[in-house]
Amino acid sequence: MDYSLVKTDMHSHLLPGIDDGAPDLETSIALIRGYQELGYTRLITTPHILWDLYKNTPEIISGKLDQLRMALKENQVDIEIDAAAEYFLDEHVLELLRKKERLLTIRDNLVLTEFSTMHRSMSMKDILFEVQMAGYQPILAHPERYIYLYKNWDLFQEIRDNGVLFQLNLLSITGGYGSRVREIAQYLLEHDFYSFVGTDLHHEGHMERLKSLEIPIKLHELLTSGRLLNDSL
To answer: Mean pLDDT over residues 113-137, rounded?
Structure first.
């Protein structure tokens, strides 16, 4: 598939050694070369900020981005790359908001957010509202992976009606995360929930699956519709 239709990937884990993505610079560079082969021209990589596991700060992320940019230049890899973060919405993020500390944004006030894919947060709507009240526009990463919301279409609709934007993991439609994830992704695609698509790439296995991905009709329609916001980033 030619991903030049998307142009910008806004969800990946490419900074070396700070989360469960690329473990070192060599891997980062190899993955980014893969993005070039797929037709991407801009990357906004989003390391986890999940305080129980990955205590990343803007300073840590900025330092790793500088290191990666230098390595890309030395290896003559010409691609535009920036960094934001994927915020796991927990008490740590709420504390950042209370202290009015600036969150890392995809662009302007757009913040990539996530919840546990295994256990439902009973305060999901409340936390998203807190993000909005702090002046941010939350993007909900891979909502199709929250399998505890399987067939809870009214809640998905309520979250969207409350102004939250949705981001599709491209690999969700392959069944790689399971049949229920694929079914939720298909429903959200068919009902025009998604404003962004991302790879959520962590490793070479993801890259190989992206290279062989067969695009279903509804996703192709989304990619060519002009509704996606990736190109505005």
So the answer is: 95
